[in-house]
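Example 477, ligand ribulose-5-phosphate.
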Amino acid sequence: MTARAQIGVTGLAVMGRNLARNFARHGYTVAVHNRSYAKTASLVADHGDDGDFVPSESMADFVASLARPRKVVIMVKAGAATDAVIAELIPLLEEGDIVIDAGNAHFPDTRRREAELKAHGLHFVGTGVSGGEEGALNGPSIMPGGSPESYEWLGPILEDISAKVDGVPCCTYVGPDGAGHFVKMVHNGIEYADMQLIAEAYDLLKQGLGASAQEIGEIFAEWNKGDLESFLIEITADVLAHVDAETGNAFVDVVLDRAEQKGTGRWTVQNALDLGVPITGIAEATFARALSGSVPQREAGRVLPAESGAWEISDRAAFIEDVRLALYASKVVAYSQGFDQIAAASAELGWNIDRGAMARIWRGGCIIRARFLNRITEAYERNPELSLLLADPYFTEQVGQGVGAWRRIVAQAALNGVPTPAFSSSLAYYDGVRAERLPANLIQAQRDFFGAHTYQRIDKDGVFHTEWTGDRTESDA
Ligand SMILES: NC(=O)C1=CN([C@@H]2O[C@H](COP(=O)(O)OP(=O)(O)OC[C@H]3O[C@@H](n4cnc5c(N)ncnc54)[C@H](OP(=O)(O)O)[C@@H]3O)[C@@H](O)[C@H]2O)C=CC1
Ligand SMILES: O=C(CO)[C@H](O)[C@H](O)COP(=O)(O)O
């Protein structure tokens, strides 16, 4: 076997096969392999004319077909399958070779694998890839972690096959070990929030205006021409316009209202709890999916009284504009929180992640690609240490213009019994983060009362405790 392939892909399901085709279409000789040979054979049979593929049945032949340093992309089911493939690869590879896990791995797994492969003299690159089937083929957003040295070898190839916006690749080096998969995880968390917010906007228009799916689709299509322009709004308009062939009804009206999840949103929330970063929009979106699937609770809950009146909206156009403004503001909150989480993890793990660069590589190729990501990049370019995206002058003004609408929508939804967990929690976050004084003073006093947990004062330095069950004197703790 001649070692002539410039890159290899093992795992040729939806993502791997399209990524392999993308490499081939960009002129790379691509070694391809899958656990079961049928997928390899069908890739070459169906898409052989995309470029130069080198198919192999065995992992040993696959590795032997790669030029050194070998670059092996693993695109298999995340978790145990990735470990199994790595274990098979290690004895076949040589010092300096690069293993790239492009699946949706959990970043602690990536950190573990990177350390393990380093001990074998191998580079391990955990990379986020977003864009689904279409993105993998035509240009995804790529978020690679690992050693800077590995990026010197790999970066040009990944940048080549990534999406481009204004000629700029949607791929850049993210940071060491698990940084790439961490950023992909937060991307997916934001994806959950964005989808939930869009779903809430749809529900408000449906319940408030009694609008049909078709009409709401037209509203979303209109919104997609302005500040909200994004892939998710675009596909929402498309989905809402789709008619079910079997029933002739709007497609969304025949889809069961139970949202599933594979785990990246949950990981994002779990990690935010560990870091102590309030990502309330993402958390509510994740829990909203859980609520939608809580079948026994939802069946039991149908008896609960609503105590809400009939929703009458006199000015339809004004209501639609309010929903649009509330959606935009809530969306900025979700991104602001997600970028806070990236900053916190980066500081804790010494990753030195450039948040502006992350917004830049999310402008194209990925599921959350959106017009306003340009504005986020600009905000972090203005101030790389920005502690709150919402406080960047551009976003302060933009969100500020919609605050009245946001409050009206959240209030009307509550009065009319329409659940808006992501809209409401985002507004609560906005009010919380801008508050001069929060009621946490009372919580500190309570904690000191029952557990001598101490508190600080606003009028002098130090840490104090009050003898609550004694004479109530205060002492330095
Ligand atoms: N689908 C999507 O839109 C996106 C997916 N991802 C991530 O990309 C990765 C691939 O996703 P997708 O293409 O959907 O495929 P799947 O996650 O459905 O995984 C199927 C692939 O994994 C292989 N596989 C499963 N178990 C093993 C094992 N023990 N040893 C070797 N190979 C194994 C299968 O081989 P076989 O054919 O032999 O069964 C097949 O090639 C996943 O990590 C996913 O989370 C990332 C972004 C978007
Ligand atoms: O990674 C992705 C896109 O970026 C996938 O689409 C994501 O896995 C979908 O997640 P879930 O199944 O949890 O909704």
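Summary: Residues 316-349 form the longest helix (34 residues).
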